[in-house]
Amino acid sequence: MVNPFKIAVIPGDGIGPEVIAEGVKVLKYIESVDENISFDFEYFPWGCEYYVQHGKMMDDDGIERLQQFDAIYLGAVGYPGVPDHISLWDLLLRIRKSFDQYVNVRPIKLLNGAPTVLKDVTPDDINMLVIRENSEGEYAGAGDRLFQGKPHEVALQTGVFSRKGTERIIRYAFNIAQKENRSLTSISKANALNYSMVFWDEVFEEISKEYPDVETHSYLVDAASMFFVMDPKRFEVVVTSNLFGDIITDLGAGITGGMGLAAGANLNPERNFPSMFEPIHGSAPDIAGKQIANPLATLWSASQMLEFFGQAEWAEKVLTLIEKMLVDKTVLTPDLGGNASTSEVGDHMVELLKQL
Ligand code: NAD
Ligand code: IPM
Ligand code: MN
After folding, report:
1. How many other CB atoms are found less than 10 A from the CB of residue 281?
2. What PROSITE patterns does this protein map onto (predicted)?
């Protein structure tokens, strides 16, 4: 018996359980045909329904229990009826922060066969890796609400950019750019954010000196957003802050086939804690429960997890077959112009794996 990879599964809310079921289906197939791989899945029922029943998003010892796992596979969190800032801060953001998953890796890549809203653009033109700072910045949670309900009410939300936090994410991105022999673009906003982003730019400049062989660029986030649409080819590896990374990766999803194809990994590179793999999209209440959610983003995140486990071959196979499905166009969900159900897409992926 091989040592199993221990995976905590948190299907979560809305379409989360629908897409995660397909990811687990594919992982279970892989385990069934590869005697060198074994997964131990444990499910956690946490999310908004759990909150309605128990008054909390996860068990009190939840973080402690998750800590035993090699990885967390998460669907989505958030549903109408529970305020978003509670559901997200008490579950998703709590996990990212407790486990110091300070790197959020989001490939913005136009796969072969994927539709794009852009004109005259091919997969060669959109192939970026966005490295989003995932532990602090605008998401530090520092702030206050003063004089609530009074006419002079005040809300404070302080961005926190530590030297340690800024250096480690920028260095992580430089290492990837260097290894892959690609350029690195920093996206910031120092013209307006005169403390945090001036600091960010300084750190980027400083660290770039350690990597003289890496071509660098620096953009303001507003102009970068325009170039994402008008000339995405200029971006290869991208490093940016928590909030900017959140926004530009949904924009990136928008030019590479939509939310159903956008994958992400929350990494603790030192592996002191479990990392978490999840699609970029949310719980999509507008389509939840209809079996029409696209599970391909969640499958791509599973591919990232396989890679993280050192199973590069399987990771590659899953991604290649996602591309094949996009090229064939026979079994796709409605967001990609097909009429297949969520589970038919997962079944088809298993069929294609069988044919390899
Ligand atoms: P969303 O990503 O859930 O949905 C945006 C749009 O994309 C919707 O029209 C939805 O139908 C579509 N979409 C998303 N995923 C899809 C898929 N797999 N297949 C087909 N279409 C898909 O964003 P939202 O509507 O702004 O947020 C809904 C809820 O999810 C909110 O509570 C929000 O806070 C939460 N949220 C959670 C996460 C997460 O858990 N990682 C991420 C984003 C938003
Ligand atoms: C994402 C999501 C989360 C974020 C929300 C749900 C807190 O939008 O993973 O992109 O902003 O990080
Ligand atoms: Mn987001």
Report:
1. 25
2. IDH_IMDH (PS00470)
Task: Report the alpha-carbon distance of residue 344 to residue 207 in Å, rounded.
Answer: 47
CA 186 to CA 175: how far, in whole Å?
A: 14
Residues with CB under 6 A from ligand 1: 15, 19, 76-78, 84, 88, 92, 259-260, 278, 281-287, 293-294, 297, 335
Torsion of CA 277, 167, 235, 313, to 10 degrees: -40
Sign of CA dihedral 1, 8, 242, 110: positive
Dump pLDDT digits (tens) for 83-92: 999 999 999 9
Quick one: which ligand is closest to 283's CA? 1
- Structural domains in the chain plus CATH codes: 1-104+259-355 (3.40.718.10), 116-256 (3.40.718.10)
- Three-state SS for 47? coil
Contact residues for 165 (Cβ-Cβ < 8 A; gap 6+)? 102, 133, 135, 136, 137
- How many residues belong to the chain? 356
Q: CA triplet 80, 82, 83: central angle to 5 degrees? A: 95
Residue spans of the chain under pLDDT 50: none
- Helix ranges (H only) for 155-220 are 163-180, 196-208
| CA distance linking residue 63 with residue 185, whole number of Å | 34
Distances 13 to 3, 33, 46, 91, 103 between C-alpha atoms, Å: 31, 31, 9, 11, 24
Q: What is the pLDDT of residues 16-50, one digit of tens each?
A: 999 999 999 999 999 999 999 999 999 999 999 99
107 to each of 38, 130, 180, 227, 280, how far by Cα in Å?
Answer: 27, 6, 14, 17, 10
Structure-token match 């066969």, residue found: 113
CA 37 to chain centre: 24
